[in-house]
Specification:
Mean pLDDT: 76
Helix content: 40-55%
Distance between the termini: 26 Å
Structural class: alpha+beta
Radius of gyration: 14 Å
Shape: globular
Number of strands: 5
């Protein structure tokens, strides 16, 4: 299980690092690192990131998420960040799909809806999971704030 977690982490870190304009906060070493990272973008607010990810089928929320002091120390208050996380039931493809969706939101690519709306976000209902995750009954990835 630890090896699988490291593989998911390494995949996420490599792909997150390639997104222009994205700042990733959190561990950058796949060995022993938790499988979650906070991120901000020069091109979209955390709320815009979350709405765009919801629209792409990746559960998302924005804010300081139980880490107000950390966000304050990083100068991210009051907007906070988006938090992307994966668990053992996720696949490498789930990680790639979620990070690709984040890249699209940040760069305004195919699923990027910077400033767009999301029925899921407006209604406070959960966002739909990816097709792969729906087949397994699990969310593709979770982006929390």
């Amino acid at each position: 299980m630890a090896a699988w977690g490291r593989r998911l982490t390494a995949t996420a870190l490599e792909r997150l690092a390639a997104i222009p304009g994205l700042t990733v906060y959190g561990p950058h070493d796949p060995h022993g690192a938790p499988r979650s990272w906070r991120s901000t973008s020069r091109t979209a607010t955390p709320v815009e990131l979350a709405l765009g990810l919801n629209d792409a089928g990746v559960e998302a929320r924005a804010g300081c998420y139980r880490a107000t002091l950390a966000h304050r120390a990083l100068g991210l208050e009051p907007l906070g960040s988006c938090r992307l996380s994966f668990y053992l039931y996720h696949t490498v493809e789930d990680v790639e799909d979620a990070v690709d969706a984040l890249a699209d939101v940040v760069t305004g690519g195919p699923t990027g809806t910077r400033g767009g709306s999301s029925e899921c976000a407006r209604s406070d209902s959960p966002a739909p999971a990816s097709p792969v995750a729906r087949a397994r009954g699990a969310p593709a990835a979770a982006v929390h704030s």
